[in-house]
């Protein structure tokens, strides 16, 4: 197994413990996204993608995060300190979605990611820097319900004009932007999911 690509998204605040996100591609055919680069007491380390652990309310059976003090569904007061503890006595609140199963693999991933992180920091200081991390459209902008069009700049440096919406619905200004992603290759009229809130 070989790591064939690492993409890094740097965080804006250099004093934050979360230094960046990354995606790692294995053998040019399998990608894991949302690994985190975190500043720890002994230097930077890579945290695997994870999800919050939950348990169920004994009254209504609804799942709640382990730090929740009240049930999200019925409002029942939940016991504090419900999470299991690790060997150091810390509450286990997250579970890895994907992770290496031996230290050699973890060391290999961490070395490649931290090397790519340092390279990305160097590139970020150069003029015209463009981040290559894929945010699934999270960098896109919604249209505003005003009279003036909005001009936005995407991460690739291209400028796009977003026209104001012609109308709003009774449920509120759910506005569809007329701007397509510059990298979009999807069919224009598939309308899958249109109107879902």
N-to-C SSE string, H for helix and E for strand: EEEEEEEEHEE
Record field, number of beta strands: 10
Counted by DSSP, the helix tally is: 1
Main sheet: which strands, in order across?
1-2-3-4
Q: Give the second-level CATH assignment, the architecture of the largest domain.
A: 2-Layer Sandwich
Q: Which CATH class of the largest domain applies here? A: Alpha Beta
Helix fraction, binned, reads: 10-25%
Strand content: 25-35%
CATH topology of the largest domain: Arylsulfatase, C-terminal domain
At the fourth level of CATH, the homologous superfamily of the largest domain is: Stage V sporulation protein G
Helix/strand/pairing category: alpha+beta
- What is the overall shape? extended
Quote the average pLDDT. Answer: 81
The Rg value, from CA coordinates, equals 22 Å
**What profile does the largest beta sheet have?**
4 strands, antiparallel
> What's the number of structural domains?
3
Contiguous low-pLDDT stretches (5 residues minimum) are: 167-189
Q: Quote the distance from N terminus to C terminus.
A: 41 Å
Could you characterize what this model shows?
With about 200 residues, this protein is of the alpha+beta class. The chain folds into three domains: about 1-50 and about 95-135, Arylsulfatase, C-terminal domain (2-Layer Sandwich); about 55-95, no CATH class; about 135-180, no CATH class. The chain has one helix at about 105-125, and strands spanning about 5-10, 20-25, 30-40, 45, 50, 55, 65, 95, 150-155, 160. The chain has a four-stranded antiparallel β-sheet with strand order 1-2-3-4, covered by helices on one side. Strands 5-8 form a two-stranded antiparallel sheet. Strands 6-7 form a two-stranded antiparallel sheet. Strand 9 and strand 10 (about 160) form a beta hairpin. The longest helix has 22 residues, at about 105-125. The chain is extended, with a radius of gyration of 22 Å.
């Amino acid at each position: 197994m070989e790591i064939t690509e690492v993409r890094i998204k740097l965080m804006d605040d250099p004093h934050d413990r979360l230094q960046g996100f990354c995606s790692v591609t294995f053998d040019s055919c399998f990608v894991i996204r949302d690994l985190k680069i975190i500043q720890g007491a002994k230097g930077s380390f890579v945290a695997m993608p994870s999800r919050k652990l939950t348990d169920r309310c004994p009254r209504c059976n609804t799942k709640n995060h382990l730090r929740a003090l009240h049930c999200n569904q019925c409002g029942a007061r939940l016991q504090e300190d419900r999470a299991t503890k690790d060997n150091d006595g810390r509450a286990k609140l997250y579970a890895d979605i994907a992770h290496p199963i031996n230290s050699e693999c973890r060391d290999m991933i961490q070395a490649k990611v931290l090397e790519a992180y340092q390279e990305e920091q160097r590139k970020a200081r150069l003029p015209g820097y463009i981040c290559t991390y894929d945010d699934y459209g999270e960098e896109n902008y919604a249209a505003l319900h005003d009279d003036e069009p909005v001009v936005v700049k995407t991460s690739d440096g291209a400028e796009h004009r977003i026209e104001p919406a012609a109308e709003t619905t009774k449920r509120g200004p759910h506005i569809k932007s007329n701007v397509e992603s510059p990298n979009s290759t999807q069919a224009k009229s598939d309308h899958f999911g249109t109107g879902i809130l």
